[in-house]
From TrEMBL:
Keyword Cell membrane assigned: no
Database matches in InterPro entries: Cu_amine_oxidase-like_N, Mao_N_sf
Domain Copper amine oxidase-like N-terminal: 224-312
Organism ancestry: Bacteria, Bacillati, Bacillota, Clostridia, Thermoanaerobacterales
Swiss-Prot/TrEMBL keywords: Signal
Signal peptide: 1-22
Pfam families linked: Cu_amine_oxidN1 (PF07833)
Keyword Zinc in annotation: no
This protein's name: Copper amine oxidase-like protein
Natural source organism: Caldanaerobacter subterraneus
Length: 330
């Protein structure tokens, strides 16, 4: 009897020592997003007979992007899963017809399963994934979330910011940084940056078009933009404020102080010398009053406050909030 009991106990101990994977006869690990596959909320890029993607790559149904990106299902797994891409104007009909969309869910644990020798253990918050080289080439600035959490609120934040800034130093421009570091823009980051926040003005017109945060507004300036022998002159008020600058005018000294992006430009009516961060710089034209309005040399003021200026063939003068006109592929 004692021998039988000993054998039973030994069998139990052996069973308990077998990994769960082996106990289920090699059953695959349950995917936290299986329910979304079944519902059709996500579709594999290259589906197998079960609707799974061998690289863990799935398109997300338009309208379900945020629900999936910040789902508790992703928070409650140690598989490393990211959501990236765009939430902007995704077409539901196209998703039904072609099975594609602008936003994707990517199971990095699946994607890099065959590269453990190179990357180590591919699990959420595992030390092997908290390395710069792990993320290099894996993501771009359209990253939305990591395991159901905005990437900016994860342990990966500093690594990812360093990686993004190394891809393009221009992202440190305040006009771009706001869209990169604030989670509220996740899913819209690329569109916001490439939408080129700024203003459009035209010589001989008092119209101004303002582009900001994916919206466009048509407004009026207090007076027309003019050309002074080829130098565009803008009114003191109405242009620089729309670019985010703070403009102050001292009527007693007739001094104008414009501050933006940590830089300061000081001008004076009747003078063609400006102080740029305390350094005297010659301007192409004097600051002067015309028809009761103080006029400033557009390009000089804008560029010395780190705003790019471009003249288009149709006569449009584009002034960006950023220092750069066309960001690279980031």
């Amino acid at each position: 009897m004692k021998k039988i009991i000993s054998m039973i106990i030994a069998a139990i101990l052996i069973f308990l020592s077998i990994p769960a994977f082996a106990q289920t006869g090699g059953q695959e690990e349950q995917l936290p997003y299986q329910e979304w596959i079944d519902k059709g909320w996500i579709k594999a890029v290259s589906p197998d007979e079960k609707g799974h993607d061998r690289l863990g790559w799935y398109y997300i149904m338009p309208g379900k992007e945020k629900e999936i990106a910040y789902s508790d299902k992703l928070k409650n797994t140690d598989r490393l899963i990211i959501v990236d891409g765009s939430f902007y104007k995704n077409d539901l009909d196209y998703y039904y017809k072609e099975g594609r969309s602008g936003a994707t869910l990517r199971d990095i644990t699946t994607l890099r399963e065959s590269y453990k020798d190179l990357y180590g253990e591919i699990r959420y918050n595992h030390p092997d994934t908290l390395k710069y080289d792990f993320w290099k080439g894996l993501v771009t600035i359209n990253l939305v979330s990591i395991n159901g959490t905005p990437w900016q609120e994860t342990k990966y934040k500093d690594i990812l910011l360093r990686y993004f800034y190394n891809r393009w130093e221009g992202l440190k421009d305040p006009a771009y940084t706001k869209y990169l570091v604030d989670p509220k823009w996740n899913g819209y980051t690329v569109e916001c940056i490439y939408n080129w926040d700024g203003v459009d003005v035209w010589i001989g017109k008092d119209d101004i078009t303002v582009r900001y945060e994916l919206k466009e507004y048509n407004k009026k300036l207090p007076t027309k933009v003019i050309s002074d022998n080829g130098v565009a002159m803008i009114p003191l008020r109405g242009v620089m404020e729309e670019l985010g600058a703070v403009v102050d005018y001292n009527a007693k000294t007739q001094q104008i102080t414009i501050k933006d992006k940590g830089k300061t430009v000081v001008l004076k009516i009747g003078s063609d010398t400006a102080l740029v961060d305390g350094r005297a710089v010659k301007m192409p034209r004097k600051v002067y009053v015309k028809n009761g309005y103080t006029m400033l040399p557009l390009r000089f003021v804008a560029e010395n406050l780190d705003h790019a200026v471009e003249y288009l063939k149709d006569g449009t003068i584009m002034i960006w909030r950023a220092k750069y006109t066309t960001p690279p592929s980031i």
